[in-house]
Amino acid sequence: MSTYDMNGATEYKIDETGSLFSLEFTMGAVYTKNILPTDPTIFSSLGAYNFTVSFQHDVTSDYILAITMPRALPVLQKSACPAVGLGSTYTCAADSANSLITLSGLVDVGKTLAAKTDITFSIGQSIQNPGAFIAPGQYSFLLTTGAGGKVDKGTWIDTNTTHYKGSTILAFTGAISSEVVGAVEVAITFTVYPRSVVPEDAYMVLTVPEDFEPEEDAK
Q1: How far is 16 from 164, CA to CA, in rounded Å?
Q2: 24 phi, psi to nearest 5 deg
Q3: Of 93, 98, 122, 137, which one is least surrounded by beta carbons within 10 A?
Q4: pLDDT at 219 over 60
């Protein structure tokens, strides 16, 4: 930085320094009003998650929103996850390893989402519900420009334990090896069609009609 004294058309340098100085900027905030699953079934990924959020700064079409999901909600790896409520040229990518959903094109080209204006959007078939009736935990948001400049950030902790309910069996059939009255060592083959993912440590409880006599209780 230099200072000069102007004497008519003549310029005289007075002071000069090469010292550096810096400015410290603070990012704005992301405000979360609600995050709700459309399908409450445990282990299910068939539904969507509805987000209602707003931002401290105006949002244009080149901005990118990164959402880090709670660890209780596994993210399914997808290069193009379906979303509703964003701009017509939106992109959505789901990163399973980092529990990350990345959205661009929040609004159409030439449009602006005004600061502190709610936007509601849904991300479908990319997030799996937990396998227990628990609260999801913490969501993290980061809004950046297309060039990577950080604009707004925020977190939201969901402590609601009533989002989820038990799954169902869609179909259950059985085929018996013999229909002869009094037959012994009869085998029944069951076919089960569960609605949701079945975890490795899952087990099934089957209540047998009283007229059947299991050969051994342990079988």
Answers
A1: 67
A2: -110, 120
A3: 98
A4: no
Give the count of domains, the chain.
1
Contact present, 131 and 42 (Cβ < 8 Å):
yes
In a domain, 41, yes or no: yes
Q: Of 203, 185, 207, whose CA–CA distance to 194 is shortest?
A: 203
CATH number at residue 38: 2.60.40
Residue 79 within any structural domain of the chain? yes
- Strand, coil or helix: 191: strand
Cα 104 versus chain centre, distance: 15
Unique residue bearing structure tokens 């259950």: 172
Cα 217 to Cα 219: distance, rounded to the nearest angstrom: 6
Residue 153 to residue 114: CA distance in whole angstroms: 16
Q: Is the pLDDT of residue 2 over 90?
A: no
Domain coverage including residue 86: 28-158
Any domain includes 202: no
Instruction: Give the C-alpha separation, 183 to 156, whole Å.
Output: 62
